[in-house]
From TrEMBL:
EC numbers: 5.3.1.23
Keyword Isomerase in record: yes
Site residues by UniProt (Transition state stabilizer): 166
One protein family per Pfam: IF-2B
Catalytic activity: 5-deoxy-alpha-D-ribose 1-phosphate = 5-deoxy-D-ribulose 1-phosphate; 5-(methylsulfanyl)-alpha-D-ribose 1-phosphate = 5-(methylsulfanyl)-D-ribulose 1-phosphate
Organism: Blastochloris viridis (Rhodopseudomonas viridis)
One BP annotation, GO: L-methionine salvage from methylthioadenosine
Pathway of action: Amino-acid biosynthesis; L-methionine biosynthesis via salvage pathway; L-methionine from S-methyl-5-thio-alpha-D-ribose 1-phosphate: step 1/6
Catalytic residue positions: 246 (proton donor)
Record's function text: Catalyzes the interconversion of methylthioribose-1-phosphate (MTR-1-P) into methylthioribulose-1-phosphate (MTRu-1-P). Also catalyzes the interconversion of 5-deoxyribose 1-phosphate and 5-deoxyribulose 1-phosphate. Part of a bifunctional DHAP-shunt salvage pathway for SAM by-products.
GO molecular function, one term: S-methyl-5-thioribose-1-phosphate isomerase activity
Gene name of the encoded protein: mtnA
Coiled-coil boundaries: none
Record-listed substrate binding positions: 56-58, 93, 205, 256-257
Protein name: Methylthioribose-1-phosphate isomerase
Length: 369
């Protein structure tokens, strides 16, 4: 399958198997100022990469966890080793449901097998999961691109302006991205568009990652402060917002990077369509209320400090806040379904309701009686 992202003319994915048996990743903590890759060789390597956000984004976390479980089985393929690897990985990030889903899928594939065939089976399942992620995101892109095409048809000769929040791009998945997949496909189809990129404090995934990948793809974009989105919507400068999600309830509540809720409120007030792009693996069919989603509390250092490039090209970290100030740093917030215009999935676009999702995924209906 064609790859969405090219770096200096070379097609890339965010995770791959090396000939040496390790798992290659792009170290996203080094972007945008350095493009570096790492090889994961052990269970602990994979767990650290997920926990420290060298890999991040719900779909990519799932793929990395699947490969991490396979690496764990190379160390110990017994039932005890399988349990240990699963426990080690499930504890790395609490919010993204793809982590639990991917681990469960690999465990189901190997648990009934004898230890001597578990490693090969686990890697094969992780490979299949990664390939499916690419196909799913490409399908999300096709459905989402139709929305952009419709808007372009209503304003011929003008640019379609899209607002994003955080990074739900190629870097958050195996390829294509979720929220960016429609953008890439519409741009490739020749639709004139421009993206307002929220900086997404405190980790700045918009300013660091989304802007970097859009720039590499040649997509026109402007980085804006998180608090500027409402202003641009008020002045009619945003045609639609598309964001990603780390977990979505069966009733359409959406958990995404902190600040998403405020963008949805502004979009609702200004009459701007607010869409969420997601693979079905990100739907938590066990939850009906977004308030039950566990919200990761991240290090206060993400708020008090920031890293950047100095005039001489060096990367430096500086402190922003006064000594002694307390910090709260929830990594995510929940946008109620009532503020979501639609959910863009690999099977089509659904209203953000249980009924809407079940029309696309009828196999998830609860048994009657």
């Amino acid at each position: 399958m064609v790859r969405a992202m090219q770096i200096d003319g070379k097609p890339w994915r965010t995770i791959w198997r090396n000939q040496s048996g390790g798992i290659g990743i792009i170290d996203q903590t080094r972007l945008p100022h350095a493009f570096e890759t790492l090889t994961l060789r052990t269970l602990d390597d994979a767990a650290v990469a997920i926990r420290t956000m060298q890999v991040r984004g719900a779909p990519l976390i799932g793929a990395a966890a699947a490969y991490g479980l396979a690496l764990g089985l190379t160390e110990d393929a017994t039932d005890l080793g399988l349990e240990r690897a699963h426990r080690r990985l499930i504890e790395t990030r609490p919010t993204a449901v793809n982590l639990r889903w991917a681990l469960g899928r690999v465990v189901d594939a190997v648990c009934a097998l004898p230890p001597e065939v578990r490693v090969a089976t686990a890697f094969a399942e992780a490979d299949a999961l990664a390939e499916e992620d690419v196909a799913i995101n490409a399908a999300i892109g096709r459905f989402g691109a139709e929305l952009i095409k419709e808007i372009a048809g209503r304003k011929p000769g003008q640019v379609v302006n899209i607002l994003t929040h955080c990074n739900a791009g190629w870097l958050a998945t195996v390829d294509w991205g979720t929220a960016t997949a429609p953008i890439y496909q519409a741009f490739a189809a020749g639709i004139p568009l421009h993206v307002f990129v929220d900086e997404t404090r405190p980790r700045n995934q918009g300013a660091f990652l989304t802007a970097w990948e859009l720039g590499r793809a040649g997509v026109p974009h402007t980085v804006i402060a998180d608090n500027a989105g409402g202003h641009f919507m008020q002045h009619g400068m945003v045609d639609l917002a598309i964001v990603g999600t780390d977990r979505t309830t069966r009733t359409g509540d959406v958990c995404n990077k902190i600040g998403t809720y405020l963008k949805a409120l502004a979009a609702n007030d200004c009459g701007v369509p607010f869409y969420v792009a997601l693979p079905s693996s990100t739907i938590d069919w066990t939850l009906t209320d977004g308030r039950d989603i566990p919200i990761e509390e991240r290090s206060g250092a993400e708020v008090t400090h920031i890293a950047g490039r100095t005039k001489d090209g060096a990367i430096a970290t500086v402190q922003l806040t006064p000594d002694g100030s307390k910090v709260a740093n929830p990594g995510f917030d929940v946008t109620p379904a009532r503020l979501v215009t639609g959910l863009i999935t690999e099977r089509g676009i659904a209203p953000a309701t249980e009924q809407g999702l079940l029309r696309l995924f009828p196999e998830r209906a609860r048994p009657k009686g």
